[in-house]
């Protein structure tokens, strides 16, 4: 029985040793990808904000603005290409005191490589319905499970331009060690408006009359990212939106806010990042490591059983007689008597 059992163990050990690199370098690369069906709702808050209330035609100051961002994956939009994920994002910014009257609504659709996270132009990608935009770099995610301490090109949906997301620190977010990246969006014209505004609202003499204006935006964005997964766990968006006259002499703030992910959602994102990191570690480290460890043990035991002959047992001990001598020794013969027998 030793040899058949040993051969079976050798086969199992060889199978585990072959399985380990297969899981690490083949299966993991195909499983560690962005999901197709992402659904995520995140809230950001900005206290002491300023914005122009169009319903009252007044500039509101020291108000609390909230931003609700919803990301939803469209599993059928990739036209059957399983390597591409398509996500829709909608952000609704509103005054906490007037939630039914949005200050700004922005929506966009991105298509990106599920393994690298890089944007691609297909599948109806657009910004606020404009599908003429050409996206590049990264969008909502950093490189999937492969974030390093370096700069990354990120596409800004508001100004529709590529700007570097620069690494500048390592910080903790609710116990998770995150990489902090910052992105500076310079003052950029984002829309040409078809309305005229009173000169007084633009800081010009009233006699200047109504003025044509364009919308401009500038921002300073900060993202804290889990380097193990590429999942952002905290956002901070310091934005300033204005309208300006073509000559730049008149301007008015439309919105100024410092939006930060609320604490509850930070914790939820950290939990999601930890759960995702565990799955990645299982495929990249734990399962391959266990396969090598147990494969070597089975291989060693199998070789021992199949090809190493057991040592011959020692000969049985020779029993002793009651007089202390070995049983295989002949009993002593009685010595001949030296006393002479009498002669009859």
From TrEMBL:
Keywords for the protein's UniProt record, in alphabetical order: Membrane, Transmembrane, Transmembrane helix
Entry-linked Pfam families: PorA
Ranges annotated as spanning the membrane: 286-308
Top-level lineage group: Bacteria
Residue ranges, annotated region (Disordered): 312-344
Compositional bias ranges of the Low complexity kind: 335-344
KW Membrane (keyword) present: yes
Annotated protein name in UniProt: DUF3068 domain-containing protein
Organism: Actinomadura syzygii
